[in-house]
Amino acid sequence: MNHDFSKLDSIFDRYPKNQESLIAVLQDIQKEYQYLPCEALEATANRLNVSLSKVFSVSTFYNAFSLKPKGEKIIRICCGTACHIRGAKMIQEQLEKLLEIKAGDTTADMKFSLEVVACVGACAMAPVVIVNNKYKSNVKVSQAKSLIKKG
């Protein structure tokens, strides 16, 4: 995957050049590229004077960070207890079938990423599916196709 890393300098310039800035820098990189490209992690280690192993350690420790590219639309299926009981697994299976990927993967065209997440604290709305941070409540298996429509 080819990226324009010219934006990294503006990200680095916002923070002091030390280890305490690491998480904030990684958050900004993730926001810019939708994931943490290896080249950006190497640049971060150099600019903040932190070991590359430390940068990778932090990048893999926090769930919010991803080392894999994400799709334009990120679909998250809540599989907490209430959602699970109300059919989240069937919704997951239907989305996997429609997108032809498994949870944790991204479609080849980079349009969709499918993720399973723990409880999102919206149990009264179960089952919940989150599409690019927009919560969909009381989702039915029959609505899976509409979740991946354009727009």
Counting structural domains, the number is 2
Number of strands: 4
- What is the CA-CA span between the terminal residues? 25 Å
Q: Could you give the order of strands across the largest sheet?
A: 2-1-3-4
Assess the beta-strand content as a share of residues.
5-15%
Order of helices and strands: HHHHEHHEEEH
Helix percent band: 25-40%
> Which residues form runs of ≥5 with pLDDT under 50?
none
CATH homologous superfamily classification of the largest domain: Glutaredoxin
> What is the name of the CATH topology of the largest domain?
Glutaredoxin
- Give the CATH architecture of the largest domain: 3-Layer(aba) Sandwich
Largest sheet: 4 strands, mixed
Give the overall average pLDDT. 92
Determine and state the CATH class of the largest domain: Alpha Beta
Helix and strand content put the structural class at: alpha+beta
| Continuous helix count | 7
Lay out the secondary structure:
Layout: H1 8-12, H2 22-33, H3 38-48, H4 52-61, E1 73-78, H5 81-85, H6 88-99, E2 112-117, E3 129-131, E4 134-136, H7 144-147
Parallel strand pairs: 1-2
Antiparallel strand pairs: 1-3, 3-4
Helix pairs in contact: 2-3, 3-4
Write up this protein.
The chain contains seven helices and four strands, in the order H-H-H-H-E-H-H-E-E-E-H. By secondary structure, it is α+β, with helices and mostly antiparallel strands. It has two domains: 5-61, Arc Repressor Mutant, subunit A (Orthogonal Bundle); 73-147, Glutaredoxin, CATH 3.40.30. Strands 2-1-3-4 form a four-stranded mixed β-sheet, with helices on one face. The chain is elongated and about 50 Å long.
